[in-house]
Amino acid sequence: MATRIEKEKEVNASTLVTNFRDHLTCSGSSKEWRWDAEFAFFVLKQCIISRVLMFIIQFVMNVVVTDYPTDAFQGVPIPQAELSQVDRWIHIAFGGLTRWDAVHFLHIAQYGYTYESNLAFFPLYPTLIYSLTLIWSSFCAVRTTIVCVAAHTHQVDETCSARLHCVYFKSG
After folding, report:
1. pTM of the predicted structure, to 2 decimals
2. Membrane-crossing residues (predicted)?
3. Contacts of the segment 64-71: beta carbons below 8 A, 24+ positions apart
């Protein structure tokens, strides 16, 4: 019995072993770990498909369903007179993503933590948005829109899903 186990260990040490549970490939003798390329491509493909589907669904629902207040906190109003034609088209395409937490993140990026209700949101995401406005304002001095992907990505049954936020900011 012990000899059979030893023989299996020798065979496993000389061959390439793929651990399906964590999708890493390990060479038994050198113990060098590397990502399985096929699984990494699968995960990347699932993440891209989920983001494209989320965009399509939000676009269709934004056109079909009438907007309604999603929160008592309305955030910063966007005066229509300041918007360019490009901004209007971007708002039509991504307007459905400017709901819920995105309103709070936008307000924090523009004005900081002015209300107690904003304290529930960590500063990293608004800081990144604000940094993008500083970079973007050197190229374009119009009110514009940036789609920020990956507010949080989590793995459920080996597929990726993500919340998308469309955030408005004033540059220049």
Report:
1. 0.44
2. 39-61
3. 67/95, 70/99, 70/100, 70/103, 71/99, 71/100, 71/103
